[in-house]
């Protein structure tokens, strides 16, 4: 965050600059204190800068001023970064990550860019595990559905379930 050039991060700043560029083609007309009517090619959008609302609803959903809001902000000659949601600001990000980012001492770690051939031979580096893939086609691990009917075998000799005629162990079954 120390390398951030503006009040927001580089990704949010890029989105903002795209919205500002798209707002060049929109015509904004002020009505009331904080209300602005923005006219596009085929839509009229109402923007309320005090409540940070736009009838296009993109501003409320993302927290980043949409192109309509950027046109309204430009009409009032305001700073666009004051209308960005607070969670995107540098001050909020510093508060969020103040206690969770603890630097780790790396005084005994080797610098990978400055290693020589003898360093590579003397040190043990963690390599990925060696795996062997079995030959042939993989078995299909099918999970049977709970709604699937399970076929129950019934013996034609003794009329008992659980086996068929070839596996029947009853020597002289009597059919009931």
Structural overview:
The chain is 23% helix and 9% strand. The protein is of the alpha+beta class. It has a domain at 10-93. Strands 1-2-3-4 form a four-stranded antiparallel beta sheet. Helix 1 crosses helix 3 (67-75). The longest helix has 13 residues, at 10-22. The termini are far apart.
List keywords for this structure.
zinc ion binding, Znf_PMZ, 176 residues, 5 helices, 4-stranded antiparallel sheet, alpha+beta, Zinc finger PMZ-type domain-containing protein
How much is the average pLDDT? 84
Unreliable segments (pLDDT under 50, ≥5 consecutive)? Answer: none
Task: Give the radius of gyration.
Answer: 35 Å
Side by side, the strands of the main sheet go: 1-2-3-4
N-end to C-end Cα span: 85 Å
Question: How is the biggest beta sheet arranged?
Answer: 4 strands, antiparallel
Number of helices: 5
> In one word, what is the shape?
flat
- Beta strand %: 5-15%
Helix content: 10-25%
Structural class: alpha+beta
**Topology as H/E string?**
HEEEEHHHH
According to DSSP, the number of beta strands is: 4
Protein name: Zinc finger PMZ-type domain-containing protein
InterPro entries: Znf_PMZ
GO molecular function: zinc ion binding
Domain Zinc finger PMZ-type: 52-79
């Amino acid at each position: 965050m120390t390398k951030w050039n503006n009040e927001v991060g580089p990704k949010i700043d890029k989105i903002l600059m795209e919205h500002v560029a798209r707002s060049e083609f929109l015509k904004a007309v002020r009505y009331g204190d904080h209300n602005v009517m923005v006219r596009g090619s085929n839509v009229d959008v109402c923007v309320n800068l005090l409540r940070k609302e736009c009838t296009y609803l993109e501003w409320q959903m993302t927290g980043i001023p949409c192109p309509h809001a950027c046109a309204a902000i430009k009409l009032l000659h305001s700073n666009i970064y004051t209308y960005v949601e607070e969670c995107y600001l540098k001050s909020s990000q510093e508060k969020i990550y103040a206690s969770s980012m603890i630097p780790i001492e790396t005084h005994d770690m080797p610098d990978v860019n400055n290693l020589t051939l003898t360093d590579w031979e003397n040190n043990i580096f963690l390599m990925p595990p060696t795996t062997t893939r079995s030959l042939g086609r993989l078995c299909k691990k099918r999970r049977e559905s709970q709604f699937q009917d399970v076929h129950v075998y019934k013996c034609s000799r003794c009329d008992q379930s659980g086996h068929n005629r070839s596996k029947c162990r009853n020597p002289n079954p009597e059919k009931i």
